[in-house]
Design brief:
Length: 405
């Protein structure tokens, strides 16, 4: 909208902030547009969100409402039955959003079809606004392959990429330890705040190995993140993080998205971002890169950008370049902590993970199927009560609790 990051009036988090009558009155009296930036809220697992509060607040908004970036998400392909499984609160919210806006901007054809099945017709496919950051003339070119100049994201790792930088997003344990001074995390922090996750053992090992090698990166400032891409002459970003891929492309580094969910698939298909969820830890990334063709993405971009501008114009919005001194959000310039205490903590976490894996292996070797699952549940309960249990003690306990048949 403004040619550079600019600070505008905003609600920090619509799910957590007090959406009061006073806030609605302030918006109606002082602003021309209410730009509603949405995510994958057409999603079955979001049924528990407080849609009623959001709906009641939206009813009070009298100025034009411009919804952007809404999308449907499912993890079993393009599931057209998703529309039927949404909660009444979700359906009511989406119906009101349709009523309040000229058109709803969605990320792809799947989202448009789900809304159509809900009886919502005023839908326009625009992709994701962040993709159009660079204006209409953006071109991305391939650089010479360099195995040490590849960036990986989220849960993607590859045995042929031993020295990649890996970008963190919500892995709070590592972010806190490496970049926030280890100040501690709230007791209700999600599972990515822990040093390891037994449901994602390979990822936990990889993250710990990357951390100990000094290869984990995290950015809170867009300029700092962009400088990282440009100054290090990276040739490729690959992984499951959709917006890391977009940001990489906007900074001149080709990207391949591997996330298999519907949100990533429909966005990449519409915007022509290279997408291949079949790429895995044993894939030959050099061969994939050498065969990567960016012509379709580059040639499709001008028309996609024009369609996005048309959507803005439909809502009475005209992009403009603001002065260089326009207020901008300020974020801390965080530096990675290289204190020896960090290495010691990572080693402790790595050791704890290997001990836990050993206990898991003992359990599964001793028992199979349902019995193994019940044994594991009981062992985890015992571990919480008796943290000093060793693997040999676990095995003794297993033999007593579940005598071999």
């Amino acid at each position: 909208m403004f040619g550079r990051p600019a600070k505008v009036a905003h609600v920090t988090n619509a799910w957590e902030q007090d959406l009061s009558d006073e806030l609605a009155d302030e918006i109606n009296q002082n602003y021309s547009h209410f730009i509603f930036i949405l995510q994958d809220y057409i999603r079955e697992s979001f049924i528990g969100f407080n849609y009623d509060q959001l709906t009641e607040f939206l009813k009070k908004i009298k100025i034009p409402v411009t919804p952007m970036s809404l999308c449907a998400n499912s993890f079993n392909g393009f599931d057209m039955g998703l529309a039927d499984r949404l909660s009444p609160g979700q359906k009511h919210f989406l119906a009101l959003l349709s009523e309040k806006s000229k058109t709803i901007g969605v990320r792809g054809y799947y989202s448009a079809e789900i809304l159509n099945r809900l009886g919502i017709k005023n839908v326009r496919i625009i992709g994701c606004p962040s993709y159009f950051e660079n204006g209409p003339t953006r071109i991305v070119n391939k650089k010479p392959w360099d195995v040490d100049k590849v960036i990986t994201t989220a849960t993607f790792f590859n045995k042929g990429l031993p020295h990649t930088s890996h970008i963190l997003q919500d892995e709070l344990y590592f972010i806190n330890l490496l970049f926030l001074g280890g100040k501690g995390l709230p007791p209700d922090a999600n599972i990515t705040a822990r040093p390891f996750n037994l449901d994602e053992i390979p990822t936990s090992f990889q993250l710990l190995a990357k951390a100990m090698a000094g290869r984990l990166e995290f950015f809170s400032d867009l300029n700092q993140w962009g400088d990282f891409f440009r100054s290090n002459d990276h040739c490729l970003t690959i992984g499951t993080r959709l917006h890391s891929g977009m940001f990489s492309i906007n900074n001149g580094v080709p990207a391949i998205v591997t996330n298999p969910d519907a949100r990533a698939r429909e966005t990449c298909e519409y915007l022509k971002i290279p997408y291949d969820p079949s790429i895995h830890s044993s894939s030959n990334i050099q061969d994939i890169y050498e065969n990567l063709d960016l012509d379709e993405m580059n040639s499709a971009y001008p028309a996609l950008y024009k369609e996005f501008l048309s959507y803005l114009k439909e809502h009475g919005l005209t992009p403009t370049v603001t002065p260089a001194d326009t207020p901008c959000f300020e974020f801390p310039q965080m530096q990675k902590n290289n204190d020896p205490s960090v290495t010691a903590e990572l080693h402790r976490a790595f050791t704890e993970l290997t001990d836990s894996v050993e206990r898991e292996v003992v359990t599964l070797r001793a028992f199979g199927g349902e019995k193994a699952m019940r044994a594991r549940d009981r062992l985890r309960s015992m571990e919480s009560k008796h943290p000093s249990f060793s693997s040999s003690m676990y095995y003794t306990y297993l033999k007593r609790a579940f005598p071999p048949t």
